[in-house]
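Loading example: each entry is read as two labelled lines plus one structure line.
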Amino acid sequence: MGNSAIVYYIRDFIGVDNLANLLIAKKRRKIKRYIPIYIMMLPGLVYLFINNYMPLPGLVVAFKQYNARHGIFGSKFIGLKNFEYLFKTNDAFIITRNTILYNLIFLIVNTVMAIMVAVILSELRGKRKKLYQSAILLPNLISTVIIGYLVYAFLSVENGFFNNTILPAFGIDSISWYSEAKYWPLIIIFTNAWRSVGYNCIIYLATIMGFDRAFYESAMVDGASRWKQFRYITLPLLKPTIIMLSLMAIGRMFYSDFGLFFQVPMNQGALYSTTSTIDTYVYRGLLQLGNISMSAAAGLYQSIVGFILVLGANLLVRKLDKDSALF
Amino acid sequence: MKKVLALLLTLVLVMSLAACGKSDNKGTQGTNKTQDTGSNTNTNKDTDTGKDNTGEVTKLVMSFMTWIGAPSDTQKIQDAINAITIDRYGIEVELLISDASSYKQNLTLALSGGEQMDVFSTILANYPILAQQGYLYDLEENSLITQYGQEIIDAVGQEYIDACRVDGVLYGLPNNRDMATGRGCAAIATEYLEGIGYPLDDTVEIQKITLDELNSIYEQLHAKYPDLEVYRPVAMSMSQFSNVDILGGNAFGVLLNYGRDLKVENLFTSDYYKEYVARMYSYNQKGYISKDATTDTTAVTELVKAGTLMGYTTGGKPGIKQQEASLCGRPMTIFQTMEDYVSSAAVAAFPWSISYNTEHPEKAMTLLKAFYTDSDIANILSWGIEGQHYKVKDDGQITFADGVDASTSGWNHSVTWELPNQFITHVWEGNFPTLWEDLRAFNTEAQKSKANGFTFDPTNVATEITSVQNVYDEYQKSLEYGFIDPDTGIQEMNSKMMDAGLDKIIEEKQIQLDAWAATR
């Protein structure tokens, strides 16, 4: 992420044309100089090839009626039949809606929260900062299963903290949280923000710490308030980072955090209308049938739509701000 | 100088990574033992006919599940079994035991990943589907079973063997256990029944009562112990407390009325289902069921053990009283409101199978035969090592060995019913000494589904089953645990299921059932 920022600076200093010439001239020498680095890259590339590219032909199983005896390539070809179940009922609409809407809201809420926390943390110094940062990061290290039970400790009907302590204090009747779907969008968004803000703010914090303090000093001399410093210095400088992180999130727009949507609502049927996402739907369906072809079909569908979303988002960014685009 | 150093460093890195990969490979090969056992195949094939032991030792992997995973003394048990099987059958066994929640996954992964897995129980893994997806060995190929396992047929009976056929092909062997289930059984901790002064009959294992009597027991229990949970439903409760034959592994299209007619019907519009859901709703309204019932996944027996729950639904059989009492850690009383029944899927629920890619089908069959007929190794697998895990009492029944109890024993899995043949093993104390004969009689005397032995091939309606299952998941607990009004709830679920293709599943089941009946 630092790269685009650096290019930005260099371009401003020496001009675009000079930069291009300079780059070509340096290219040759660079390749030679970087040979050890290329060699260092090799194991990673080999791993990437073995792990991510070699299994690709296996995707064909999504179009087959898999039979272990005949193997992936020998099984009967049945076209798009494995994809049918995804679009069979209006479940397809609900799960697609849930997946995309949740991810959109996560994207907005998490980005705002992460920048907020990063700015606040960047103002702190010394031991306190480390303490706060660790405390905020902690939820991210907790397994989702345990998070599910932490939420349960708050929301359990008979013994939960909410129903026994908080609601009576306001004179509200107890609520059976796990059978009322309408509360869950809020619970899920809150849980997700609580859990991921610590991790998300790390990159923003690192970027902010890298800013030249001279900007802020001169702004202060000019009498800019904290808000104005944030609005006119921090935010514009953060823009490339925000765009890149958002792009990456958009690429995963069609995926959902399985644990968050499966473990935290405790897989309660009554909550499916607001907690079911593509991943949990497919998992539940295939738990019953154990059909490899149908899970492959679902995975392929997610990947293709995710791929289109990345390309589309990148196209959009390139139109708006060419330098921030990934490719 | 720096460059050279960097180059050297990267080289070392690459080399060490490569070395890592290599040693990894070795590790997996070591456990799989595909290479060194491969050479044995040929020599065995020719000589392995009548005599079991040819002097060569074949290594086989055998897998099954227990509720808690591999008990701590698994290695000891494996050694004790091998001490017998190497000598008698020329087979060395490796036991691969998983816990219930991961067994299916481990099994499917091993099978689809081509790992060695010769003999296994198909429990929880959906036997007909495994067969239809090609993971199981055809046990009649080259007359494998008659040549190497005739004694198995003698031990379980041809009728049960035939019930395990999938599309006419035999892929699994049924084990000897309770095939029938006492429907409509309730287990209630005895101390609470004594508390309300209920007359208990000690001469029978299962007390037969009517549903109204059971309801009145619950009412009295609730009045006397208002702070305790009276009854806790679980996912299986509905089918256990019904006359419904769950046909072909799912509740979408069932036989009603103990499967007396081969007519596939929609369970969810039946009067039975309405009554059941309404009863649960009234239980819930009266406060018998915990409000956390849908989210709490603690086993009901654990809740009884903890003293917060009084009763739950179970499946009746000879030996049930002792089994539930040992699970709950306190004396239990079993009531039955319905009849004993062998459902269509009971016999072929979890047969023992051989993997499609085993290199030693003959040896695998021989090993199965050994566990079906050789009480020495069957006892070790069921109860452990005499003197270490159990001891034989004067009356011939067994109990924990001296200095060992349920929690300290290293081999106390309580899944003897899953193993090939429990009828040739010892009887645990607290049961009638005639337990195994009682079980045989129980199986033969219970009424049987007309569709006994029918297996359903879901290939044509896989899409619909997935969709309908999702609808059922959405409503099952709310309805069957009595949390939503049955009138609106059932209707809502039904219309959603119809949209998802329930009709098509029922139709397909009827077609396959008719075709199956025509061949009988």
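The first strand of chain B starts at residue 58 and ends at 66.
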